[in-house]
Predict the 3D structure of the following.
Amino acid sequence: MRTTIIAALALSAAVAQAAPYIPSSGKQVIETLPRRGDPVQQQLRSLRAELNAKPTDVALATRVAQRYIALGRSETDPRYLGYAQAALAPWWTQAAPPPQVRLLRATLLQSTHQFGPALADLKGVLAAQPDNAQAWLTQATVQTVRGDYDDATASCAHLSNLSIELITVTCIANVGTVTGRSVKSEQLLDLTLERSANAPEELKEWALTLLAEMAQRRGDATMAEARYKRALVMAPNDSYLLGAYADFLLEQKRAGEVLTLLRDQSRIDALLLRRALALQQQGGEQKALAADVKELGARFDAAALRGDTVHQREQARFELLLRRDVPTALALAKKNWAVQKEPADIRIYLEAAVMARDAAAAKPVIDWVTRHEIEDVTAQRLIRQLTTGT
């Protein structure tokens, strides 16, 4: 799902359950804090001080929360999402807060895979504001992740009269790529992107990333790489894009390029995982690999103590490919599948089933791929391995 990649978004009570991280030496850098002189941080401090003085000013609170959410996405820092939730505290537990608050609450809830409550909030927003384009788009995204493709298509359709063409077509293509309409969806999105030169850069980058993934899934590595590189020019620090391109490079056995790409990205769990996979693939740096595996294990253990299940897909990859614990990986892939059904979720489930030599365990996924005519050369290869042994 093209959303913020989160290490954790936990309330203080949940955080208290996790064991503290103790650095190995006093010279170890634990975190780099934003500079106090940073204009963005100065503005946020000013807004926060204003909100502290007027905590029930809904317009101010939503403005502060929106800024924190945007910063959380650009910096891939879950703390900012926690700050956004804190800004909405006066309304957070209300059954039906003001629509602008409810939409932001839905955004934060879906970020932690609380899809049911998020959809309930979005339904409430749309009942009050049926022309809210952001609510329709967020709802379509969540429905697609859950595999509710008919509902997602209907939500995308509402955007046609409420937003620019690129948003509508990207929304529809995101559904089409997993419902047997991948080629036509890719062609339409590519054409729409080419004639959307004046669209915001972040929207063009979103469309390009989706197009790159489409090309990758149908096996066109040259086209996929060209699109990934174009997107990276627009958003070189986008963590979702970095992870997707790193996966592409790993698929192409280009581990050295992954290590260069992710040189300064170890703070983000999903990117640290890919760096470890690159070290494993490249070989020769066993000490660095062991350190990354140990760090990832500690992070996943801490998440488990918090009751955080957001990264079950990544943890399944960690257990399967780095720890070689196939039963645990398959169990995690099954749990993840119960929550979300994106192409990456299909792939890790099938990979775990192949390594477990358990075709029966993969039947729900195989049936899903067949029923929805999902076009993915890697998924089809894994299914052949499970069903025919070739």
Confidence is low (pLDDT under 50) at residues 3-33. DSSP finds 22 helices and no strands in the chain. The CA atoms of residues 208 and 230 lie 7 Å apart.
